[in-house]
Design brief:
The structure holds two protein chains of two kinds. Helix content of chain A is 36%, strand content 12%. By secondary structure, chain A is α/β, with parallel strands linked by helices. Chain A is globular. In chain B, the strands form four sheets. Chain B has a seven-stranded mixed sheet with strand order 1-9-8-7-6-2-3, with helices on both faces. In chain B, strands 12-13-15-14 form a four-stranded antiparallel sheet, covered by helices on one side. A two-stranded antiparallel sheet of chain B has the order 4-5. Classes of the chains: A alpha/beta, B alpha/beta.
């Protein structure tokens, strides 16, 4: 089942959507020919065909709304429809980012309130919502760390420590901000290796980037000691908040000794993942680091009016042209208001219970990477027996109608299979998923070729990624 | 409400399966002193209550729909065909994630491939990625890309590039070894905006020259001299374009740009108070392995069926970690589908119509506003759909006065340059009506007469002083 390309649906002269001719058609266009284009080779496709085309394409996807999607570290939880409805209100959507603040008081108030709600949830003192996505939040966070050290006149610190279990964005970010990256070993229980940490900490370490809970789905058993050691060495602790879902109502990251942290609103706070974006992000800091936050920051003036404050002389600066992904902020705000104080802990508890339930049900056939209670996700290291690889398990799972877990990450777990069920699934769904994974494990022993050749039931089979990279075809 | 569907009985069964008496046992690893803190974020709201709360906030905003609005400066109000919203509202597209499993993500992957192809068609560039955050970060990523490609550290940025893009670039390069030189745009002797010598600023140490077409102030220029000078010096050309303008204008590929970037919002994306938008980023084929961001490529499965995959991933952070081309992990996928749907719907004729209507409406507005005594158009012709005016009033005050008359004026250029405190950047699109232009012209005329009368009451020479300011600032024939 494949779908034609728009280019293949195009025919010269086919009528497209009619756009308005100028209402001042008699105004001459005084643009010299040399500045004009000769041809505009866009396809010509009728509206009904365009709609059918993209609708048919949508049906080649699986998504949260169609399928259990336990992609580890991505928090694929249900995205409430009311979020989208609120972001589509004309009073939210039809606002120009530069119109006078007097005409956008409700929007700025929403940003200010969301900053405050996130500060309460995480325990931090100040928040900026100017970032576009988690990785940009990291860029802001590490720029803040650099600016804070420099403001103290400390320019020796050139290294950032990053656990070997970390997401690739962490070292990539550190490098973008001009830091050298030193990998930090994990110990046998999946914690930061304290001896290694002590060895590495000295006065050229700007800080530690740490994901809480870790990408192994584990809460570090010596978390407070880790952050204390970094602080004693004069470093700052960056928290990667990708996995905040596990901590909602359970612990406030600030109280773990973290100085600056980004949150992925598209993970924990239910803004749609959009097939890979747009994300949305918050950068949360202690009061000491607040002056360095990216601009703008929403603020309430003494007269009760709201403003987007961009006059912050110590700020690391702008992250984009305007004020972040406002449409996503409306969604996250709506969700958090519905959660309320009581709902937070319910989310954290259910997310962790569901992951542990899967851990318990699957451990007989799949090898646990670390045999202890997990947080919101559980990481296995392949099958207990048989020759099938994790890739084969994942591909065969597609035939059972499930989106596979994250595979081959974290890098320190061989044949990693990382399952994050989230809190919005029923026990029946979890049980069906367990049954499918156990059936695949059984097939792996009985008929490994069935797995090697999987998937069998999807719109296309396994695709040749090697040729795609070697002889790239990147446009029609 | 929390959307947690587990019943009390099911929860008990799950705990029993784990051999646990209470869910609290799963959290014993959290230090006891900070475990389960009391957090006050208010009562849990029902969907109805949440809706009322957000609607109340929305009610304190003034939506621009239907209002005369002359703001552009990086975000543009264009008409969006209803089918765009219908497509990106499909939750099979909006609630999927990064297509890590291509067999069940062909919808996302093919749509991204088509987005890339449409942007290539539009720009005349060889390769386009699956998008970056916005136009501003696209400029920053392009500069970092040019630095990697050339090994040079000096970057020449035209003062005609959107100042907020330049500010974002400054954040991105931060403390790194990049030296940015900006050619200022100022009012010349005749009052018209003129830029310092951009070509002269390019030399053998230049990694790239960043130019904007049209400029932030609306002007369309002949880019040939800059492209020629840059290439002669071994530097790359980064062109920042307005995608709507490419319905008419010579595209970056035809100018010889090496990297072309843009804010994609004008192509079917709602204003949404500044985001989420989508950064368009293209380059020449030879440079693709230094391009950041996701790229989708075409391939086949074992049965020879056409399919699409994420490709050239050896550039990206999940493979290369600290050696990656960028830390970017998401793209603006869903928004890019809005752009793809828009371009597919309007086709070449529709985009040309939008560009032409915007340009003609702007000419109507410039002609009429520029004819008001005391007002001068200070963007040199030809411009696209934006132009700057100089008036005797601070733009901030003019904005306030216009708002009293239910008109959202242009962008206060005093926010960019204190010398331009009396300058305002006005924008028209195909949505702007002749009646709205007339209202603007009438309002500006009245505001200036009021102002002249008010200063006359204080100072009998007020009006003449104003006229003197105007004569000094008004270029002959520009309006």
């Amino acid at each position: 089942m494949t779908e034609q390309l728009l280019r293949e649906l195009s025919a010269p002269g086919r009528p497209t959507v009619r756009m308005p001719a100028s209402r001042a058609a008699d105004e001459p266009l005084d643009i010299p020919a040399g500045l004009l284009r000769d041809e505009l080779p866009l396809p010509e496709v009728s509206e009904p065909e365009v709609v059918r085309h993209f609708t048919r394409l949508s049906r080649l996807n699986v998504s949260i709304d169609t399928t259990f999607y336990p992609l580890g570290s991505c928090t694929m939880k249900y995205n409430p429809k009311v979020n989208d409805a609120m972001a589509s209100l004309p009073g939210m959507r039809a606002l120009h980012p530069l119109q006078p603040e007097a005409t956008t008081q409700g929007a700025i108030e929403l940003i200010a309130e969301l900053q405050d709600l996130l500060a309460r949830i995480t325990g931090f003192d100040a928040v900026s919502l100017a970032g576009a996505a988690g990785a940009q939040g990291e860029l802001a966070g590490l720029s803040i760390i650099r600016a804070a050290h420099e403001a103290r006149g400390d320019t020796r610190r050139r290294r950032v420590l990053i656990p070997d279990s970390a997401h690739g964005t962490n070292p990539a970010t550190a490098s973008m901000v001009g830091y050298e990256v030193t990998a930090l070993r994990s110990d046998k229980r999946g914690n930061v290796d304290l001896a290694a940490l002590r060895d590495l900490l000295d006065d050229d370490v700007a800080g530690l980037m740490i994901t809480v809970p870790s990408t192994l789905g584990l809460f570090d058993e010596a978390m407070l000691e880790v952050t204390e050691l970094v602080h004693e060495a004069g470093g700052l602790v960056y928290g990667d908040g990708a996995n905040l879902n596990a901590l909602l109502g359970v612990a406030r990251p600030r109280e773990l000794g973290i100085d600056v942290m980004h949150l992925n609103l598209h993970k924990t706070f239910t803004t749609p993942h959009g097939g890979g974006g747009p994300g949305a992000c918050a950068v949360c800091v202690t009061s000491e680091l607040a002056p360095f936050l990216p601009i703008p920051v929403a603020a309430r003036r003494s007269d009760g009016s709201y403003t987007l404050d961009a006059e912050r002389p110590q700020s690391i600066g702008r992250l984009g042209a305007f004020h972040g992904h406002f449409g996503m902020l409306v969604r996250a705000y709506t969700y958090i208001r519905m959660l309320g104080s009581a709902g937070l802990r319910e989310v954290g508890e259910a997310a962790v219970l569901n992951a542990n339930y899967l851990r318990g049900q699957l451990a007989e056939k799949y090898r646990l990477a670390y045999d202890r209670s997990c947080m919101h996700e559980v990481v296995f290291s392949g099958l207990q027996s048989g020759s099938a690889r994790t890739l084969d398990v994942a591909k065969r799972l597609l035939d059972y109608g499930f989106h596979p877990p994250t595979i081959y990450f974290p890098l320190i777990v061989p044949e990693a299979l990382m399952i994050e069920p989230t809190e919005t699934e029923t026990k029946a769904t979890l049980d069906a998923f367990v049954a499918a994974l156990l059936a695949v494990a059984e097939e792996a022993e009985r008929d490994p070729d069935l797995l090697h050749e999987a998937p069998h039931e999807t719109p296309v089979g396994r695709l040749d990624e090697t040729s795609a990279a070697r002889r790239p075809i990147l446009h029609w | 409400m929390t959307y947690v569907p587990i019943t009390v009985d099911e929860r008990a069964a799950m705990l029993q399966a784990l051999g646990l008496g209470s869910v609290d046992q799963l959290f014993e690893v959290i230090p006891p002193g900070i475990r389960f803190p009391a957090i006050d974020i208010g009562e849990s709201l029902s969907e109805l209550e949440a809706t009322e709360t957000v609607e109340a906030l929305a009610g304190r905003n003034r939506a621009v729909s239907g209002l005369p609005m002359f703001l552009g400066a990086g975000a543009y109000r264009h008409f969006v065909p209803a089918a765009v919203g219908a497509i990106i509202g499909r939750s099979e597209l909006s609630t999927a994630y990064t297509p890590y499993q291509p067999e069940v993500s062909q919808g996302t992957l093919q749509a991204s491939f088509e987005f890339q192809s449409l942007v290539c068609d539009l720009t005349g560039m060889d390769v386009t990625n699956a998008s970056v955050y916005d136009g501003a970060s696209a400029v920053a990523e392009a500069v970092l890309m040019a630095k990697r490609l050339t090994g040079r550290e000096r970057v020449v940025v035209s003062g005609g590039v959107n100042p907020r893009y330049r500010a974002t670039l400054a954040t991105y390069v931060g403390a790194r070894d990049v030296q940015i030189e900006t050619t200022a745009v100022r009012r010349g002797a005749d009052g018209v905006l003129v830029e310092e010598d951009l070509v002269g600023a390019i030399d053998e140490t230049t990694a790239c020259c960043v130019v904007s077409q049209p400029t932030f102030f609306g002007e369309i220029r002949d880019l040939a001299p800059v492209v020629e000078a840059a290439h002669r010096a071994g530097a790359l050309v980064v062109e920042v374009y307005n995608p709507t303008s490419l319905g008419l204008l010579r595209p970056p590929g035809a100018w010889g740009a090496d990297i072309a970037v843009a804010e994609g919002q004008p192509l079917g994306i709602p204003l949404s108070y500044g985001g989420p938008y989508v950064g368009l980023m293209s380059c020449r084929s030879e440079l693709v392995r230094q391009m950041p961001g996701r790229i989708v490529g075409q391939t086949t499965d074992a049965q020879g069926r056409r399919g699409f995959v994420l490709t050239l991933q050896a550039r990206e952070q999940h493979i290369r970690r600290e050696k990656a081309t960028s830390n970017i992990c998401t793209s603006q996928t869903l928004i890019s589908f809005g752009v793809a749907t828009y371009l597919a719907l309007v086709g070449p004729e529709g985009l040309r119509d939008v560009a032409e209507a915007s340009a003609r409406n702007a000419r109507r507005a410039a002609g009429q506003v520029g004819a008001i005594p005391g007002v001068a158009v200070i963007t040199p012709r030809p411009f696209f759909h934006e132009f700057a005016i100089q008036t005797p009033l601070p733009a901030a005050e003019l904005t306030r006065r216009l708002l009293e008359r239910d008109i959202i004026g242009g962008y206060d250029l005093g926010q960019v340059d204190p010398e331009l405190v009396n300058s305002m950047l006005l924008c028209c699109t195909e949505v702007t009506t002749v009646a709205q232009i007339q209202r603007l012209v009438q309002a500006v005329g009245e505001i200036l007469v009021d102002r002249a009368a008010a200063s006359g009451a204080l100072d009998q020479h007020g009006t003449r002083a104003m006229e003197a300011t105007v004569a000094e600032g008004r270029p002959g024939g520009t309006a």
